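Please produce the structure of this protein holding magnesium ion.
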Amino acid sequence: MRTNRRNFIKSSISTLALAGIPVRFNLISKEHKINFLNDKMKLTYKKYDLRLKHTFTIARSSRDFVPIVLTELNHDGIIGYGESSPNVRYHEDSESVISFFNKLNLSKFNDPFDYVAIFDYVDNLTNGDASAKAAIDIAIYDWLGKKMNVPLYKLWGLDKNKTPYTSFTIGIDKPDIVRKKVEEAEEYKILKIKVGTDSDKEMIDTIRKVTNKPIRVDANEGWKQKEVALERIKWLKDEGVEFIEQPMPASQIDDVKWLRDKIDFPIIADEALTKLEDIPTLASAYDGINIKLQKCNGIHVALKMITLARALNMKIMMGCMIESNVGISAAAHLSPMIDYADLDGNVLINNDPFNGTKIIDGKLVLNDNPGLGVTPI
Ligand code: MG
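Below is the modeled complex.
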């Protein structure tokens, strides 16, 4: 399907060129592109491939690298950095992100301080495209923090000492690789284990043989039958697991309610949560939500989600895609407000193009530079 799409884009560009219409972008190349929004604000973006240290396998896919799109919002001599890490689970890829950027026309806005109106416009421009919208949102917040010369956590009145420990994610793999990954995760206090396949017991047994650290488990919608999910969750509870994330497909909310009636064990919604409006319904089946900036249009929606989930007495986790330090820092600045952090997306790669938030002995550590506090390497 992606090949067809690529061919379609290539042929569309050729058609435009033949018709004498200037083609501003070559959507295929990874070179830096410039999209002038208006005379006052300028958005630049570039594709970048994050390279994974290990092939990363979850219940539905396996990957060696992750294409992202980095953004820069330039206004008044200040650059705000943003990032889109699109995920096919949410019907996005780097080409759809660039296609979204080409639809933007922000010429009616004066500067990034029009951010409420800008977010409203961006959110309503299309259905979906959450990670593309997040890339605009993150760049605007970074710009605002820099313009006001405060780190974002301070802008939101948060205590940077209250950042949580992040879990370190171990993908589905063979026992010898799993053992190696657990060794590499020595500085992390909490492990997050991917399950949802026939090798679940082997994964957990392998890890329990080498460490007694607290573990959290993510099935990524892998168990399709509620009886199977119940049996696995009972077993995980006996293994001392802290909670289970998305045990069943997002669409099977009635089955998750059934599970919750059968067993007292925290169940967190991840794939089932994409919009603010999902949360009241999810509260009837799940104990908490996993907020990811890349699936919820960015920080401005995440702030509302945190408030709503707290009002509904739900636990709040923040997760990530495979992302650079830009996306991770954006979530990390919000993290003093949450219960569980799973913000290790940039430590699973070996070519992060930015410095910024650090993880020291497993804890998220924010710096005091303004905005996100990130700098290109
Ligand atoms: Mg998850």
